[in-house]
Amino acid sequence: MKKIIYIANARIPTEKAHGLAIMKMCEAFARDGVDVELVVPRRNNPIKDDPFEYYGVEKNFRIQKLPVIDLMFLLGKLGFFLETCTYAISATAYCLLSSADAFYGRDEISLGLISLFKKNVVWEAHTAKKRWLASGLLKRCKFLVVISGGLKEYYVSLGVSESKIFVAPSGVDIEKFSIAVSKEDARAATGLPKDKKIVLYTGHLYSWKGVDVLAKTATQLGSDIVTVFVGGTEKDLADFSRKYGEHPNIMIVGQKTHGDIPLFLKAADVLVIPNSAHEKISRLYTSPMKLFEYMASGTPMVVSDLPSVREILDDSIAYFFKPDDDESLKEAINKALVSEKNANALTDRVKEYSWDTRATKIIELLK
Q1: Positive or negative, the Cα torsion across 143, 149, 155, 160?
Q2: Which H or E run contains 27?
Q3: CATH number for the 174-351 domain, one of 3.10.129.10, 2.60.40.1740, 3.40.50.2000, 3.20.20.410?
Q4: Which of 67, 88, 110, 233 has the highest Cβ tally under 10 A?
Q5: Is the pLDDT of residue 260 over 90?
Q6: In this structure, how many other beta carbons lie within 10 angstroms of the beta carbon of residue 107?
Q7: How far apart (Å, rounded) are the C-alpha atoms in residues 280 and 288?
Q8: What is the C-alpha separation between 158 and 225, in angstroms, rounded?
Q9: Which pairs count as long-range contacts for 115-122, CB under 8 Å and 24+ apart, including other chains?
């Protein structure tokens, strides 16, 4: 495996988690000795930082920006449709001139078009796409990489051969999240209260993430316990703050750089993944990066009892609660605060989920 072109119809850099995952996988592929080129659209971007510095990754691969019609800020969904179509055309034209060993990515529209002309196309699916949208790509792609067993079952139900599907959960940069920092020093660096027990959540504030259940639970915990929310888009933060920002047991700190997150995780007494069971993406398909980041930190974890989470964790290393149930979540948090499980068990388990390990397994598959 000499060269991979990673196809990503994404604004890079972006405040959303997929940007980090794309950049980390390109870095990891390159660390494995592969020539990597990340091909993205040339879009308007409010984030002006250098992508490598923004994500803290090695500059061991190239980023190629292709021309697109970018009118999303004016035309909304129609603008997104135009951008998607023009990126697919640009990416296909670019790949036709390349002799890469694999054309890899998440964008089924671009990859579907490329697969009409190239045989060595690999699609990494993060959601359950409807048959009509991805049927051609599913037939023509060399392999389908999915992030959970639930997604594998979904695509098998569409007629995709099991031998063509490879399950590769999300990953983590273990060194960055297993930092040797005391809880006291981490709180001093992050500005979090030193005289309280801290329950902490990182990530977006979407409803299927279960953040409303966690906020409701926070109001029922003791006055010596503060629940901290880190992350969220500007709009979601405004809505979430209106609903919960005045409660003394809730602290909303907003968006932080990914480089700051390890300190927040080390500052906490308990980390929570409160995903809802109401939507399939949460119950069956997701593989949240924060799960592996939490594990690498070694901080006790409270998590929704969902099949997507059970693929990675078990009762020996995490506290489970009934999804969407604030009473069950409250009970699990209180248990985690007084009876810590072995942190070494978490950090030992996460070793098999590094970005480098993930990339190596995928490269071996392609070989």
Answers
A1: positive
A2: helix 17-31
A3: 3.40.50.2000
A4: 110
A5: yes
A6: 21
A7: 14
A8: 47
A9: 115/140, 115/141, 116/140, 117/92, 120/366, 122/362, 122/366
Q: pLDDT tens for residues 2-52?
A: 999 999 999 999 988 899 999 999 999 999 999 999 999 999 999 999 999
Host H or E run for residue 304: strand 301-304
Q: What are phi and psi of 16, to 5 degrees?
A: -85, 155
b/e burial code for range 255-282 (CB count within 10 A of at least 16 → b): eeebeebbbbbbbbbbbbbbbbbeebbb
Class of 3-168 per CATH? alpha beta
Task: Give me the residues paired with residue 137 across strands.
Answer: none
Domain residue limits, the chain: 3-168, 174-351
The angle at the Cα of 259, spanning 178 to 20, to the nearest 5 degrees, equals 100
Helix, strand or coil for residue 139?
A: helix
Tokens for 274? 């409160």
pLDDT by residue (tens digit) across 272-316?
A: 999 999 999 999 999 999 999 999 999 999 999 999 999 999 999
Q: Which tokens go with 70? A: 């970018």
pTM above 0.85, yes or no: yes
Taking the C-alpha atoms of residue 60 and residue 13, their distance in angstroms, rounded to an integer, is 16
- Mean pLDDT (the chain) is 95
Structure tokens at 157: 């139900």
Residue 44 burial (C-beta neighbours within 10 Å; 0-12, 13-18, 19+): exposed
CA 86 from centre of chain: 26
**Rounded to 5 degrees, what are φ and ψ at 273?**
-120, 100
Fold equal for 3-168 and 174-351: yes
